[in-house]
Amino acid sequence: MKNKVSVIGAGNVGATLAQRVAEKGYADVVLVDIVEGLPQGKGLDMLQTGPIIGSDARVVGTNSFEDTANSDIVAITSGVPRKPGMSRDDLVLTNMNIVKSVTEQVAKYSPKSIIIMVANPLDAMTQLALHVSKFPRKRVIGQSGILDSARFRTFIAQELNVSVADVHACILGGHGDTMVAIPRLTTVGGIPVTELLPKETLDKIVERTVKGGGEIVALLKTGSAFYAPAAGTAQMIKPILLDKKRILPCAVKLEGEYGIKGVVVGVPAKIGKEGMEQVIELKLTPEESAALKKSAEAVRELLKVMKLE
């Protein structure tokens, strides 16, 4: 029996993600949206790419959560996108009601599923889904670190004129202004990037990475990033379905790791068929540890706004 992945939200992120999963052929895809005709039309269009790309994945668009029943993975992309001048934090009250409603339906129809949160503000929405679903923390994880690391890797590769495949980045913390880039643990072909680029250049790259989403929002004017977020989410889905045991940066609820308890933040984690199977604890400097805890506190402030604290 083929795996089943449901994508909630048929906007730019959701539709792009559904397409990426369908193209791989290792799962059937259900695309859900409240707008009548939108997921059906996009789903049918994707289904018809099958003969061209050689994928037998079944793609269904629907307005009903009943069609998502017994999903292995549910990716939640639904929510209001950022507008120019809007921070991720500004989104919290608007998107919390959407995510709460969606999560209730996911828990009802797919009680054994793994939820991947994509909606912003990412860390707070992941924590909300955990609270509403009552799932164990290993089955509710957020996609943020892969996207942030990809931006960091892209800018480093451009600066050094090397392949992005040889750049491995380390970014921790919340998905936003308090993310914590760790240049000393970022490598290019196994060489610490701190040996290849001066601190001033690295500081500029880190700043651009932190503001990466805002840069795209400012350019698009009527939307936010979707190609890279969708690719990052697809990268998380693969090791779950194929039990690859990948070490990926994900937003997970910490229960004492890194000296943080009860808050969702981005950390390296082992991802396999059970979801988040292990939090990888890095040895941080006092400054890095303090920055990570500051990031966690920023998430906690949002939880207070949402009355989850």
Portion of residues within helices? 40-55%
Encode the helix/strand succession as letters: EHEHHEEHEHEHEEEEEHHHEEEH
Shape: globular
CATH C-level class of the largest domain: Alpha Beta
Beta-strand percentage? 15-25%
- CATH architecture call of the largest domain: Alpha-Beta Complex
Q: Spatial order of the strands in the main sheet?
A: 3-2-1-4-5-6
CATH level-4 homologous superfamily of the largest domain: Lactate dehydrogenase/glycoside hydrolase, family 4, C-terminal
Number of domains: 2
DSSP summary: helix tally: 10
Low confidence ranges: none
Termini gap? 41 Å
CATH topology annotation of the largest domain: L-2-Hydroxyisocaproate Dehydrogenase, Chain A, domain 2
Largest sheet: 6 strands, parallel
Helix/strand class: alpha/beta
| Alpha-carbon Rg, integer | 19 Å
Mean pLDDT: 95
**Total strand count, please?**
14
Note the main attributes of this structure.
14 strands, Rossmann fold, 6-stranded parallel sheet, 2 domains, 3-stranded antiparallel sheet, L-2-Hydroxyisocaproate Dehydrogenase, Chain A, domain 2, 309 residues, alpha/beta, globular
